[in-house]
Write a structure and sequence with these properties.
This protein is an alpha+beta fold. It folds into 2 domains: 5-174, Roll (C8orf32 fold), CATH 3.10.620; 216-271, no CATH class. Helix content is 58%, strand content 7%. It is built from 12 helices and 6 strands. Helix 2 (18-26) runs parallel beside helix 8 and helix 3 (35-52) crosses helix 6 (102-115). It starts with a helix and ends with a helix. The mean pLDDT is 94.
């Protein structure tokens, strides 16, 4: 791996490797992270998985056996005791601690599954990233946070638990997510974690990385503006919020942003 995340993000979509991207994100918190060490750890896990899996060619059985290996034998699981621990989003920590959140566990799952000959693809399901495994006779959906196969009814139950019945399951929700969208979601999670901790410098850094990955999105201007206002850099923050409203005047949160703009202008009037 040469260069940093900015160089990585400039690649064509087909050249983006999820594991590489996840480790480069982790380097933001662990600048001395030895990427090759973690590549080697994944190599060893994949070799162990190949010894563990049956070779009978039955895809559904192989997926179920792989699940048992990863979640049972190795003990990878979702950190439901401290979901917002930032280590759950740093891929090196997920490998070392065997704890994560749905998206980082899914990145691990897809990488190891590919190495043992299974097809596994990330699914950008609302609120909980999933994995889709074609079996030849349909497909299996895997919830890596709970370490289990889920059906459409259980997907709806997940939506109900998170959105209080306001969202109904659609095929679009189960569409495969590409590497760029997946890494953007990792960055968004980290931004949210550090905003919750009022660590605005770190939160701003992950907004900057998101802009590298998906340049020009209006929400990046919104996020920068809100963070700058929290840092009491009101003039700069106001400029970014106004940029957001210019770029996305009909966004669902545009009315709330307009309220922030009005309050910030009033504040600046009194300060001046």
């Amino acid at each position: 791996m040469n260069g940093g995340f900015a160089d990585f993000a400039r690649r064509d979509d087909g050249d983006l490797d999820l594991v590489e991207g996840a480790l480069l994100i982790a380097r933001e918190a662990y600048p001395n992270l030895d990427v090759q060490v973690y590549r080697a750890k994944l190599d060893r896990l994949a070799a162990e998985a190949r010894r563990y899996l049956p070779g009978n060619g039955r895809k559904r059985a192989a997926v179920e056996q792989f699940n048992e290996f990863l979640f049972g034998r190795l003990g990878f699981r979702g950190n439901d005791e401290d979901y917002y621990d930032p280590r759950n989003s740093y891929f090196n920590e997920v490998i070392d601690r065997r704890l994560g959140i749905p998206i980082t566990l899914s990145i691990l799952y897809c990488d190891l599954a590919r190495r043992v000959g299974l097809t596994a693809m990330g699914v950008g399901f609302p609120g909980r990233y999933l994995v889709k495994c074609p079996t030849g006779r349909g497909e299996l959906l895997v919830d890596c946070f709970d370490g289990r196969v889920v059906d459409r009814g259980e997907c709806q139950a997940l939506l109900d638990s998170m959105y209080r019945g306001r969202l109904k399951l659609t095929d679009e929700m189960l569409r495969v997510a590409d590497a760029r969208a997946t890494l953007a979601r990792v960055l968004n999670n980290l931004k949210g974690v550090y905003l919750g901790r009022r660590d605005f410098e770190r939160a701003a850094r992950f907004v900057d990385l998101s802009e590298r990955l998906l340049p020009g999105l209006p929400e990046h201007a919104r996020d920068r503006g809100m963070i700058l206002i929290q840092q009491e850099r009101f003039g700069q923050g106001l400029g970014f919020l106004e940029d957001f409203l210019r770029l996305a005047p009909k966004a669902p949160d545009a009315p709330a942003v307009r309220d922030h703009v009005r309050m910030t202008r009033n504040l600046l009037t009194h300060l001046n």
